[in-house]
Amino acid sequence: MQRALLNRATMRVAETTEVSGRVTADEVNLDRFHNRILKVCALVAATLIPSSLRWMFLTFVLIVPQVLWGGANPTATPQPTPQTWFATVGAQSNDKGRQALAFLPNEIWIHAGDRITWTFDVDEIHTVTFIPDSGLRPAFSVAPPGFVPQPATFDNSTTVTTLALAKGVPPVTFTVTFPKAGNYKQVCLVHQNMTGVVHVLDPSQPLPHDQDFYDRQAADQRRDLLSDRDGRSVAACGQCAAQDSLKARVVAAGTGEISATAGGTQTLAVMRFLSDQIYIRVGDTVEWTNQNPVEPHTVTFGTEPMDITAPFNLRPNPDPDGALHADIPAGPTAPFPNTNNVSSGAIVAAAQDPPGGGLSDFQTPINPPFTRFRVTFNMPGTFPYFCIFHDDLGMKGTVIVFPKPTPHP
Ligand SMILES: [Cu+2]
């Protein structure tokens, strides 16, 4: 998904990422209405993230299930003063390398009849989705450029969701009215482990917090996620960069970690190759490992394959430990021998299985669950590569291969 706008410098996240700290409610509001530039490429690229299962649904043909806008028939009991609350979807570092896959905040108490407006604030795509207690989790569809979601009502009878959205111009918002008291789980259809809850109370009940509290809480959660305050994600990177697996040089293709609040789970995703430049000699092997618990990445050299989620031009058999293996140039048994076009396909750890093994929450193993990809370089040169899903966010790297030293006569 390389485009002209991708020519920003690749940065080492750990060194250069800037993370905003706490922001005031005014800043939040200002930001909320700040004009944004629609980056279509980011939307498209980020959309391609998920497993091949979901790729089937990536289309600009708007197959919007009827359930999407169902229930737009408010049966609200008369409310004296229905209130509108505000929250944000996602957060990112200035270089976009760190993405908070989170609803900010992810737990809100409101009165029946109130509504909540979510603002999509990042280049990574997300959905705001409410599914009835007995409902199945649908697949997501990608919103076309300029798409403006219409307000909806959720009463726990039919699913309400946006299409997959990223920030753009005008500010992309989605408003949901909640006419019935209840506790409703909120999910993002694009990302596992991105959940929240809306507590809808009877108007006779007092509410524990005001909007100012939620603005401050959202800012705190944003800062904590993006700054990786406990340092565990960055520490993991340091370890993996120093690893030496099967005598291969190891590069982390993304890292991250899941954290939780009382309202649900959130994920920090570092969309970078660590380290992004590596020096080897002809005959050496480089191994990429995805260390993010939920976010798939690709390691792609040369031209993007048609099926971006599938491995491309590899050795016919994986290594004995299951790792995918390619050669540059591709060996004689590869589908397209002697070319430099190879791709890992989407590599990510397998999701956990739910009881019963149902498909309803996409909690099935990604099959096969590749997390390692190796490339053996048999020619000298400079070999740039990228993640098809996240190169728009700056996820790119380079392998520089030196000739073998000539032995002294
Ligand atoms: Cu990626």
Bound small molecules, which ones? copper (II) ion
Q: Kindly report the CATH topology of the largest domain.
A: Immunoglobulin-like
Q: How many strand elements?
A: 21
Give the amount of beta strand, in percent.
25-35%
Q: What portion of residues is helical?
A: 10-25%
| Helix/strand order | HHHHEEEEEEEEEEHHEEEEEEEEEEE
So how many helices? Answer: 6
Q: Calculate the mean pLDDT score and round it.
A: 77
Low-confidence stretches: 1-74, 236-246, 362-367
CATH superfamily annotation of the largest domain? Cupredoxins -  blue copper proteins
Please give the CATH architecture of the largest domain. Sandwich
Span of the ends, CA to CA: 48 Å
Number of domains: 2
Gyration radius, in Å: 23 Å
Helices and strands in order:
Blueprint: H1 13-16, H2 25-32, H3 40-47, H4 52-55, E1 84-92, E2 98-104, E3 107-111, E4 115-120, E5 129-130, E6 152-153, E7 160-161, E8 173-177, E9 182-187, E10 195-201, H5 211-227, H6 232-242, E11 244-245, E12 248-261, E13 264-274, E14 277-281, E15 285-291, E16 300-301, E17 324-328, E18 342-343, E19 372-377, E20 381-386, E21 396-402
Parallel strand pairs: 1-4, 3-10, 6-8, 12-15, 14-21, 17-19
Antiparallel strand pairs: 1-2, 2-13, 4-8, 5-7, 5-9, 9-10, 11-12, 12-13, 15-19, 16-18, 16-20, 20-21
This protein binds copper (II) ion (CU).
The site of copper (II) ion (CU) has 7 residues, from loops.
